[in-house]
Backbone:
């Protein structure tokens, strides 16, 4: 057991560290943005009134104690923190349970005096430890600015418990299906349904009871930094215990490599998209692309639906008027400015997708499926090039989808924004997205195990630098490292052509480095 625990710890330690660092950075950004954007009681009262609008409530939740630093972080960023830790828990759990069985590596621990149930318990213990470390990072970061130990503790425990619940649901899925990506998809669907239920619960007071059916909604019931309803933590524990019990029962009823849900009779082969390596790559990843697309479309729609309301509130805020002056904007530009600023957040999300998409290439190599293709008359360059084409096409599709969904949201609420404006705002981030995609390719060639970790960390750091750097008066060369810093506010301003071409050149150079390095190293090399 101890050896298995050390193995799983070694497999997850980088991810846990990166997750904790990302959590710390995000909480700091939220706290700093609150102090800077809402410096007085009047602006905080306007925030509370704005947050109680139905469209805002559906996305952010019902505002509680938003006039405090801690309450604002919970309301504005709590759901996103939970989503980050939940996604990590889903991917890591499916990797340690079903992924290790898919690759055949799970056979080695079970060859010794260790049972399948013990391996499952050890994997879940490792994921739970990662969630608790992230919760500790939340507590340490928010307890000082909020000056509320109890509120910080409840917030941290709620975030960590959310990740444990998602890991428990994915553990059940890993017993039901026989492929890792299917288990991860079921876990992601569980997370998505929870978010939709929370939106329904917050749409009106009469539907608030629905929040008890959503893991996202339990944080709204917990109300850290407000009422501090510590008893809600019992709900997390009970649901996690039930799911874990189900996972262990199902694991005891199946053999290694098998699944509980199997199709009766012979399963017909599906030759669709198997005619070439690039088509096969599309077949393997289109489902995940659809999931990302749905998430980005829903988020963009609600962001678009908030543009008009946010513009009306901010137009009467003197502090925001000074901020507009710094950006070279006027009150008449508020709607377009909101679209431009929110497009940066969407660009951040698509940059994370680009890193994941190159990570999927690494997964094909790590799972030894790439070897079967590369033993045929298929060069490494053609194989990797096909995946790169698919990655670029996928990114462009997500950019267009985000812009279109944002416009639909603005159109529904009557904001004076055109479809071309929202598409321009989303496409403005393409050079930035390609930079991080190129960085992922470079890591794939030079240090394959860091294919996802380095670009994801770089995305977070770059965004924080562009946001916090000017406020902290950091040197220009430090802030200038961030690609986000060089993005113009399109459609308010014109596209920064020179900066865009420079970023495109950097993306091409990084991709070329990764391409050459991949052709020179061993397959599945470290």
Residues:
């Amino acid at each position: 057991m101890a050896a298995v625990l050390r193995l799983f710890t070694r497999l997850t330690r980088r991810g846990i560290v990166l997750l904790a660092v990302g959590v710390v950075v995000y909480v700091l950004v939220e706290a700093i943005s609150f102090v800077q954007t809402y410096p007085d009681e009047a602006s905080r009262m306007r925030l509370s009134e704005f947050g109680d609008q139905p469209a805002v409530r559906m996305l952010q939740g019902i505002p509680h104690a938003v006039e405090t630093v801690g309450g604002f972080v919970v309301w504005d960023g709590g759901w996103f923190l939970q989503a980050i830790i939940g996604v990590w828990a889903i991917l890591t759990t499916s990797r340690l349970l079903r992924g290790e069985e898919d690759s055949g590596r799970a056979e080695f621990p079970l060859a010794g005096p260790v049972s399948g149930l013990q391996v499952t318990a050890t994997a879940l213990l490792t994921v739970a430890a990662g969630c608790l470390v992230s919760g500790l990072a939340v507590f340490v970061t928010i307890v000082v600015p909020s000056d509320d130990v109890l509120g910080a503790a409840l917030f941290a425990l709620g975030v960590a418990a959310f990740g444990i619940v998602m890991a428990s649901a994915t553990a059940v899925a890993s017993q039901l299906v026989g492929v890792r990506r299917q288990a991860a998809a079921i876990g992601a669907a569980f997370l998505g349904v929870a978010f939709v239920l929370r939106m329904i619960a917050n749409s009106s007071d009469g539907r608030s009871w629905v929040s008890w059916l959503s893991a996202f909604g339990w944080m709204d019931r917990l109300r850290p930094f407000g009422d501090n309803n510590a008893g809600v933590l019992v709900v997390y524990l009970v649901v996690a215990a039930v799911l874990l019990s189900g996972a262990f029962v199902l694991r005891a009823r199946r053999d290694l490599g098998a699944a509980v849900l199997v199709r009766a009779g012979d399963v017909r082969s599906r030759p669709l998209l198997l005619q070439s390596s690039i088509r096969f790559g599309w077949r393997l990843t289109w489902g995940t692309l659809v999931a990302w697309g749905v998430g980005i479309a829903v988020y963009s729609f609600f962001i678009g639906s908030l543009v008009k309301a946010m513009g009306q509130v901010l137009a009467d805020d003197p502090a925001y008027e000074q901020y507009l002056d710094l950006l070279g904007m006027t009150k008449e530009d508020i709607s377009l400015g909101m679209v431009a600023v929110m497009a940066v957040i969407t660009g951040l999300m698509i940059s994370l997708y680009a890193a994941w998409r190159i990570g999927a290439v690494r997964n094909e190599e790590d799972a030894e499926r790439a070897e079967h293709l590369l033993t045929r008359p298929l060069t490494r360059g053609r194989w990797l090039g096909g995946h790169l084409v698919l990655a670029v096409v996928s990114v462009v599709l997500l950019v267009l989808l985000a812009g279109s969904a944002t416009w639909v949201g603005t159109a529904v609420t009557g904001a004076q924004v055109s479809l071309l404006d929202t598409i321009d705002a989303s496409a403005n981030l393409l050079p930035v997205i390609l930079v991080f995609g190129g960085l992922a390719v470079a890591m794939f060639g030079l240090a394959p195990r860091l294919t996802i970790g380095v670009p994801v960390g770089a995305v977070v750091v770059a965004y924080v630098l562009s946001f916090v750097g000017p406020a902290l008066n950091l040197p220009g060369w430090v802030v200038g490292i961030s690609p986000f810093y060089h993005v113009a506010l399109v459609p308010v301003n014109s596209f920064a052509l020179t900066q865009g071409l420079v970023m495109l050149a950097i993306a091409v150079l990084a991709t070329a480095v990764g391409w050459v390095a991949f052709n020179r190293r061993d397959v599945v090399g470290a």
Q: What stands out?
A: The chain has a mean pLDDT of 83.
